[in-house]
Amino acid sequence: MEYRHKPVLLAEVTKHLSLHPGSIVVDCTLGGAGHAKRIHDLIAPTGFLVGIDQDDAALVAAADALRLGQQGILLKGDFGELDTLLSEAGLAYADAFLFDLGVSSPQLDFAERGFSYHADASLDMRMNPAGGGSTAADVVDSYSESELTRILREYGEERWASRIAAFIVAARARRPIRTTGELVEIVKAAIPASARRTGPHPARRTFQALRIKVNHELEKLDGALRSAVRWLSSGGRIVVISYHSLEDRIVKNVFAELSRGCVCPPDLPVCRCGMKPVLHVVTKKAVVPSAEEIEANARARSAKLRAAEKV
Fold it and tell me: Structural domains in the chain?
């Protein structure tokens, strides 16, 4: 299978990045290079694109799709290492940053990666399998029932978190849980039949929660956004697409904090804190896909885009 990814909110991304020939752009979540290809076209012939991804398959596909030559560089890593990656690449600043969070379509489509609840495969879910670290199977087989409940409730917003955790613990007492298919059947058994008749796949929230946990996605996001803002040139833009309410909350809060400026009590006649706004929030409300885009690409349904400009 080819590593292809249909970019979400492509027109809105390019609009809010406010690109022009010569722009220096960092795509922090390269994936299948769907957004990056359009960005590269807009900044050519004098612009420079930095593409970052921790997935070897994504980097290989992006190298083939982009053919950057002297007009860019692809770096292996994740956005939690942004400062180190950009320093090692010799970048002085950037005019725009893009974060397209979550899992890419090819990672879901390649069953052997263990992200999908539609196919039976090894329960992995690591975005960088070569980097070691715990798999989803390690989490479900070793975490306590209370910790599993917390993960499913917090990262998956799963209504049946405690019941699913209890069923997981009971199942693993009989034998280790090693495949996506085994986990799907456990989740189905845990959720009452009446609750499974409507809505998305019953295992969707559980798989989402485990993926976020295994890849430490939320833990890295706050720091990565602040790092990107530090690297931005004056007037530069940062655009973030999130697919989860917790991701969107982090983005919204960081943008709000960095755009606030003075935090002195309102009764003080003169500002004493000296704090100045770092960002101007461009999108007062999150930008969401049109009904037409969602119909054409179901994976866009939960996307929310926020953009801000460096003051």
Answer: 10-100+217-310 (3.40.50.150), 116-215 (1.10.150.170)
